């Protein structure tokens, strides 16, 4: 019996190997078509049916891949044979073409074809039966590396990533601001629900900050894609999947991009439109130009946001309900929800007048009724007020982006009036301490403090001169 297997192995052209078992159903072509359809915006079930596999198989493939196609399905570089070339080899071999003829047909070296027929052929029964699906399975199995995730092996790096991703939000006095109690359900948070509070650096911010914090330690390096894969891909390891709740989107799986795809107010005159804003505010060269807006919550609660265009430094306005809110409103009386024109004017004035004059040049807002008293605000603070065009949020892009980040802490449909001024300051500090790509991976707080120091130095020079 043993002699028979030895003769069969000798005939096959390679030493006897322990059989890895029957080649599983690869479905490589179906998987590739499935992920192509996913990229076009189809649901997992629709893509599975269109690819020719059962409907329940689609969501399973999507979950296993973390919402992104496995790298093993990508077409190899020209150095390696592709599945299409292996199919061509199988067809030509069945026609009894020689190795050199097949090599000329494919534009490959004869040694490549000979090695492929010897290494990746099915050798059951001692014969070199070449089939493309079995050959591709052999090639994928041999190319698989038992390389563990870097976050599994490197404890310090894993701790650094976890602290920046899921660290606690702290107030100015160092105490933790835990935020509302939440529970991770293994899927994305529902709409209009509380979300977990955390420092919530994005994977790219973490990866780009590592060379700044550890310039001499080359082991403290990781790509943002590796962090995403540790969170999303099943079996990748390194980070717990519940940490996806700390991502800005809160998604437990990646979502393909294809799936995600007024009238002015009478107090807004031609003189205060954004077209009249000075050019220095448009190119962000001079600090002191701000953008503002409100984020609205349940029961007409609101929080005001101010963002400096050059440094991306954010300040939050505490807008608690006024006395008498919730009671029958007096006809033509003032707004009592906390974000009426008078309340917003006073909140902006109290917040921004603490800044030096050079850092409060202008403020751009949308045409909301809360800015009806902008003329008085300009008198009180010296700020030049400008209004964006109706239905043009991109004209206040810095503020819109910041509001999107703040929704991680203040989701839609939640009561924002329960948050104290200390809570708002803690969230603003967390946001201002995140490194930003547009700032060269420095934080808004660092850049803003640099501007304050420059103003102080200029004041000292002017005084001594």
From TrEMBL:
Keyword terms of this UniProt record: DNA recombination, DNA-binding, Transposition
PROSITE patterns: INTEGRASE, TRANSPOSASE_IS30
Domain of life: Bacteria
InterPro entries per the UniProt record, alphabetical: Integrase_cat-core, IS30-like_HTH, RNaseH-like_sf, RNaseH_sf, Transposase-Integrase, Transposase_IS30-like, Transposase_IS30_CS
Residue ranges of domain Integrase catalytic in the record: 283-452
The keyword Glycoprotein belongs to this UniProt entry's keyword annotation: no
Region spans: Disordered: 1-26, 172-196
NCBIfam families reported in the protein's UniProt record: transpos_IS30
Primary role: Required for the transposition of the insertion element.
Family membership: Belongs to the transposase IS30 family.
Protein's name according to its UniProt entry: IS30 family transposase
């Amino acid at each position: 019996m043993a002699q028979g297997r030895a003769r069969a192995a000798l005939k096959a052209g390679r030493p006897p190997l322990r059989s890895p078992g029957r080649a599983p159903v690869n479905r490589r072509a179906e998987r590739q078509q499935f992920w192509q359809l996913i990229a076009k915006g189809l649901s997992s079930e629709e893509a599975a049916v269109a690819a020719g596999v059962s409907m329940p198989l689609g969501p399973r493939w999507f979950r296993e891949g973390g919402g992104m196609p496995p790298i093993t399905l990508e077409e190899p570089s020209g150095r390696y044979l592709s599945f299409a070339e292996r199919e061509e080899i199988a067809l030509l071999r069945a026609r009894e073409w020689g190795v050199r003829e097949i090599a000329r047909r494919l534009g490959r070296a004869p040694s490549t074809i000979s090695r492929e027929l010897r290494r990746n052929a099915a050798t059951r029964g001692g014969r070199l039966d070449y089939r493309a699906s079995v050959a591709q399975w052999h090639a994928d199995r041999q190319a698989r590396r038992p390389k563990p995730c870097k976050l599994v092996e490197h404890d310090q790096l894993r701790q650094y990533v976890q602290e920046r991703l899921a660290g606690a939000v702290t107030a100015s006095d160092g105490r933790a601001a835990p935020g509302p109690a939440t529970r991770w359900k293994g899927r994305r948070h529902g709409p209009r629900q509380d979300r977990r509070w955390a420092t919530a650096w994005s994977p790219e911010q973490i990866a780009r900050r590592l060379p700044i914090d550890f310039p001499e330690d080359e082991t403290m390096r990781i790509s943002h894609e590796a962090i995403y894969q540790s969170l999303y891909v099943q079996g990748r390891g390194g980070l717990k999947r519940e940490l996806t709740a700390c991502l800005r989107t809160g998604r437990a799986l990646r979502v393909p991009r294809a799936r995600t795809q007024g009238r002015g107010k009478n107090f807004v005159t031609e003189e205060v439109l954004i077209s009249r804003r000075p050019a220095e505010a448009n190119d962000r060269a001079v600090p002191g130009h701000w953008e503002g807006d409100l984020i609205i919550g349940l029961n007409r609660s609101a929080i005001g946001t101010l963002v400096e265009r050059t440094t991306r430094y954010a300040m939050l306005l505490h807008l608690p309900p006024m006395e008498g809110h919730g009671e029958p409103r007096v006809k033509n009386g003032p707004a009592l929800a906390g974000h009426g024109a008078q309340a917003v004017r006073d909140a902006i004035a109290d917040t921004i007048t603490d800044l030096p004059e050079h850092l409060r040049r202008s403020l751009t807002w949308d045409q909301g009724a809360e800015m009806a008293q902008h003329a008085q605000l300009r008198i009180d603070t010296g700020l030049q007020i400008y209004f964006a065009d109706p239905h043009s949020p991109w004209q206040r892009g810095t503020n819109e982006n910041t509001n999107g980040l703040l929704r991680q802490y203040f989701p839609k449909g939640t009561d924002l009036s329960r948050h104290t001024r200390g809570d708002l300051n803690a969230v603003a500090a967390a946001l201002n301490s995140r490194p930003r790509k547009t700032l060269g991976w420095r934080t808004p707080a660092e850049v803003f403090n640099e501007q304050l120091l420059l103003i102080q130095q200029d004041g000292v020079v002017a005084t001594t001169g």
